[in-house]
Every structure is written in C-alpha cells, then in structure tokens.
Amino acid sequence: MDKAMNFKKCVACVLMALGWLLPLKAQNTISLGFCNGEMASTTSYQLTGKGYVSAALRLPAAALRAYAGNELTAIRVGLVARVNIDELRVWVNNSTMEETLVQGMITRNTNPKIQKGWNEVLLDEPLMITDDTDDLFIGYTYHQNATVGAVSLVGEAMDYTSFLKMGDEDWMDISDKGVLSIEALISGDHIARYDYGFQSVQIAPNPSVSPTALSVKAVVHNYGTESPAWFSVLCQTDGIKPISLTLHEAIPSTRSETVTFGFDPGIETDEQTLWTFTIGELGGEPDEQPGNNSAQAKFTYQKNVLVEEFTTEQCVNCPRIASWLHEAIESDKAFVGRVFAVCHHAGYYTDWLTLPCDEELTWLYNENGNLYAPALMINRRAMFPNKYRTDDQPVATFLPASAEEMVSLFNDELKRTANAIVGVSLDVDDDASNLKAHVVCKQNGLYKAAHPTLTVYLMEDDVKAKNQSGATGVYWQQHVIRRYNSTWGDEVTWDSNLFAADYTFEIDPSWNKEKLSVVAVLGNYDAANPANCTIENSAKASLVDDVEPEIPTGIVTMDDYHETIMNNRKPTAQECCYDQQGRGLPLSAILHRSSQTKGAYLVRYADGSVKKVVIP
Questions:
Q1: pLDDT one-digit tens code per residue, 460-493
Q2: pTM
Q3: Which pick of 125, 224, 410, 556 has the fewest CB atoms within 10 Å?
Q4: What is the CA radius of gyration of the chain?
Q5: Which residues, listed in sequence order, are joined to residue 58 by a DSSP beta bridge?
Q6: What integer pLDDT is reported at residue 445 of this predicted model?
Q7: Residue 543 in 3-state DSSP?
C-alpha cells in the first residue's frame, strides 16, 4: 500500500516536472564575429619574453541589437599556439574600452584548459543584450612566460574591427590586415530565423562595362538561423531612380560572405555621390530585424596590377618567364593600362642593368636570405607558398608555371578595389634632356597604411641585351629601370585626401625616348616586416602613347603571315620571336622554311605588337 502510494507520488512529481518543462522553448546558441569560424595557421604577431598580449574585436550596435532579448554567455578565442601561455582571460568592454562589463578565465590547469585552436570560455555571468545596447568590444588577454606568437588573424580587411596590444605598447588598429579569430556566443529564444545585415559596402567605377557602370563589393552577415537561396537589394541615391536587384547568394547561418555585383544607373557618379544599399526580402520572407539592413557605400577605386619581375642576363630560365609575362599582359584588352611590369635585375647574380634598388628590393623575398630568379611579385602581396623558410608563412615572390597562371592571378587582383588612386602626367624639356613627372595621389579616407610611400620609376623598353643566357639571336630587355627616386619611396604626407609630387629625371642621349615610360607606385613600407610592404595602387604613363595591342583571335598560318602581316618584306632588326620554351629566336628562324620547326611562336613586330604564329 505504502509502496503503491509512493509510486503514485513519484509519477505525479515527474508529470508535474514535465508540465513545467513542456511550455519552455528550446534555446538557440549562435556565434557572432567576422572570422567565419576560421583560424590562421601562423601569425605575424609575436611578443618576445614574458608579458601580456591583448586582442579586441568591435561588435557594432546594429549587429548586437539584432539579438535583443538574448544573452552573451561566452567568448570563443582562436589561438595559433598554446605553448608558454599560462592564463587566458576573456572580457566584454564598453564602447570606449574604459570599463569591463563581464569576464571569464581559464588556465593551463583548469578544465577546460588553454589549448591550441579554439577555446570556448564562459563568462562569470551572462550579459543581457537590449535594444539600447551600444558598440561592444569582445576580446582576450593572455599571459606568456616566454616568447610565443598566438594571435590569429584571417580573412579580408574590415574597417575598425580588430585591435591588438603587445606588452606595454599602445593599442594598434590592425583591421587592414584581416579580422581576429574571436566570436561571441549568444544564447536565448529570441533569435530570428530570417535576418541579413550589411557589415560593409564598397562601390567603384566599372568602365570596362560602360562609362556609367558601377561595381559593388559588400560584406553581408546572416544573423538568423535560416539560409535563404536569394535576397533582394535596393540601390538608391538622390536624383536617380532606385534600382532593385535580386542576388542569388545563400549565406550560411552566423557567417559573413563577400558578395559582388554590378549595376548601371545610366548617369555618371563619383565619390561625391552617396549610395545607400538596403536589403529587402530573404527568399520571399521579410527580414525580421530591419535595423541592420541599410548601409551607405564607401567609394573605392579600381586597383591596377604592378608585376615586378626579378631577372638577370645570367639567368637561363628568365627569357621563358619574360615571354610568358609579355604574352599574359597582352592577352586581354582589359589589361591595357591596368596591368604593367617593372624589372629588377637581381635575384640570380647581377648584370649591367642592375641598379642599387634592384638588389635592395630582394629583401621582399623574405626567404631567410635565399634568392632565386626568375621570380615575380604581384602588388607585393604575400600570398604564395615559400620555398626556403622553415615555417608555412606565405611570401610575395613566386615562380609562375605558365602564362595562363599569370592571367588568372591578374584577373583575381583586378577584382580587388583600392582605397587610393594614382595619376601620372609627363613632360619633356625642349632639348629632350630631362623628363618631368607630375604624380597625384588621392585617397578615400579608408586608406590605413602606417607608412605610405611613393616610388617613381623611369623605364625603357626594347633595350638590346649584351649576353642573355637561355636566348639565341637578338634578345630585347623590357621594363628596364633607368632612374628612380628611392628604393622604398618618398614619404607621403596627405593634405586632406591628396598628395602631389614632381620629379625630374635626366635622359641619357643613348636611350630611345619613344620607349620611355614612368610607373608611380603608392604603397606601405614596414622596415620590420616584408609582408607589410604591399602596394595600394599604381599608374603608368608613356612618353609616347602606347599602341593598343592586337589580341590574337585565331591561328595564323605561315602563308597568312608572309602575305598579310609581313607583306612579303624582310624582318627588321627589332623583330624577333619566342618559342614555347620562351627562348628568343631571330625572326628568320621561322621565316625560312629550311629552318622551320613545327609549333607555336609569339612574334613581336617592330611596332611592339605581338601575334601568335603556328607552323603546322
């Protein structure tokens, strides 16, 4: 009897407990950050000896308020290394970084303990997010008992998001290098299913489409739990009819994606035109949190591609790479005026064209003192696997495998935008003894180079080689530096958003003035780190206007070549060809049938144009 009563009481207790539990909604937990859950494998930030390192990620109010009614419960921290770190404290600071609102800590002895990779650290108490929540900084501070580099920075730059404090130094903004691997964990039952928001929007002219066309690069974050297949965007500015677009991009929950698209308002606009972009429907569903849907675009500029080639006349493989580079640059009309080269005669011994800047710039290899040629750099961006380092840090130099690889890299770089633009105009003295270059740089306020510099090169094309290894017959050096202002450039001091400078270069009488050009390069110089010496933008101007290259449209047979291209004339001394191995040959090698070898050749004419010739 007593047992039966006790059993009934137990059943009643269980049912009562279930009755309380059933009405409750299951809580969702999402992560909020900009790294997309990614971590770096290496780091450029290392504190020597004992000390503290702090990193902070700014979460804007618009992003936080999308989660009003939920709680910030933990911080996720990505560490590249764990060794020598004995304490990891996470914290949430107010918008001025003057007050710590909540914090939490783990050590190498706690459970969980500090580990390489992701560390999830609970806060001592949750922080409620409301409709009035302001910007917050989430971050971490670790103590190291010996030298270590553990800060993880990934992805594309996002303005005013990532900050770092090394030891006793002041906080520094590292947003132009990427985003920190830090995420807030938010829990609650007020998390929207459908909620997209802009994190940043950049707009740039796109003259390759039309004089009035614009290209847009936007970072869109999915704050919701669903991932719709498409979303709509409204493009608006004063005086122009709003333009509605549908973008078929599915963004995973809690992730950010860079979305690119274009439109043509039919009217010329510039940096004075303020464009606003607003997210509308999400796969046919309304956005549940419209407060983060709109953003005003930052005006950016088209980014040109500067290719720097390390080469010497002692290098047997350099003619092949030079041939591929020439073929790649002239393969697409879109590259005209946007992709250009400068040659540094260094990397594999030196030659009669080597200048001091050429050897000094080999520091950019960043390969523990090891050099090689041929080698290329593209806007000095460290994005290629190293050859000689003992770690996996990327470097700026690489050895291309083909002209097609170069074309692909050029196209990728052209898709990027710049926060500054460079213009060059040239003039020559009446007696042609001096060339004057007037350079103007303009930035949009987003350019964050710590030490901006301007380098100006005076170059000559079609310089006859003295003794080029790997080539037969006459070989012509291209993109030869004749004069320059300084190896690492002159310091740029902005007057509002402008910088202008004039340079005068003496012209040697032996130079071919019709082959002279000037390249101006705006970049950053970091004497401590070659990877930070990137180029923001560049421009080229020729003393004589460039002739737009003829782009091959098909196979040209030898008979066609004789009859229509050469007009049955003899080749001039300036004309030569290159075989598939990049070896320079006199044009007579393919003109005379007795010396012809089947295959494809690149032929350069006296006017500088290039055509592909096939001998079947």
A1: 999 999 999 999 889 999 999 999 999 999 999 9
A2: 0.68
A3: 125
A4: 30
A5: 137
A6: 83
A7: coil
User: To which H or E segment does residue 18 belong?
Assistant: helix 2-21
Between the CA of residue 362 and those of 313, 354, 368, what are the distances in Å? Answer: 17, 12, 11
Answer whether 421's CB lies under 8 Å from 399's CB: no
- Read off the pLDDT of residues 356-368 as tens digits, 9 standing for 90 and up: 999 999 999 999 9
| Predicted confidence band of residue 140 (pLDDT cuts 50, 70, 90) | very high
What integer pLDDT is reported at residue 557 of this predicted model?
Answer: 43
Is residue 246 helix, strand or coil?
A: strand
DSSP state string for 483-518: EES-SS-EEP--BTTEEEEEEEEEPPTTS-GGGEEE
SS3 state of residue 96: coil
Alpha-carbon distance of 401 to 385, in angstroms, equals 14
pLDDT band at 207 (very low <50, low <70, confident <90, very high): confident
How much is the pLDDT for 269?
84
Is pLDDT at 336 greater than 90 in this prediction?
no
Structure tokens at 501: 């400078």
Domains of the chain: 28-188 (2.60.120), 196-299 (2.60.40.10), 305-542 (2.60.40.10), 558-615 (no CATH)
In this structure, are residues 518 and 540 in contact, taking their beta carbons and an 8 Å threshold? yes
Task: Tell whether omega for the bond before 452 is within 30 degrees of 0, i.e. cis.
Answer: no
Per-residue pLDDT at 70 exceeds 90: yes
Q: How many CA atoms lie within 13 A of 598 on its CB side?
A: 1
Strands lying side by side in the sheet with 71-79: 28-33, 182-188, 71-79, 117-128
Task: Work out the average pLDDT over 311-330.
Answer: 95
Q: Which pairing describes strands 305-310 and 339-344: parallel, antiparallel, or unpaired?
A: parallel
Q: How far apart are CA 439 and CA 584, in angstroms?
A: 36
Burial class (CB in 10 A: 0-12, 13-18, 19+), 286: exposed
Pairwise CA distance, residues 474 & 344, whole Å = 21
Query: How far is it, in rounded angstroms, from Cα 320 to Cα 585?
Result: 12
Which residues make beta-bridge pairs with 503? 437
How far, in Å, CA of 480 to CA of 380, rounded? 18
For the packed helices 403-414 and 318-329, what is the interaxial angle rounded to 10 degrees?
A: 50
What local confidence, expressed as pLDDT, does residue 415 receive?
83
Single-letter code of the amino acid located at 604 = R
At 511, which amino acid appears? W
CA 565 to chain centre: 41
Q: HSE, CB side, 13 Å, CA atoms: give it for residue 580.
A: 7
Q: How far apart are CA 424 and CA 165, in angstroms?
A: 39
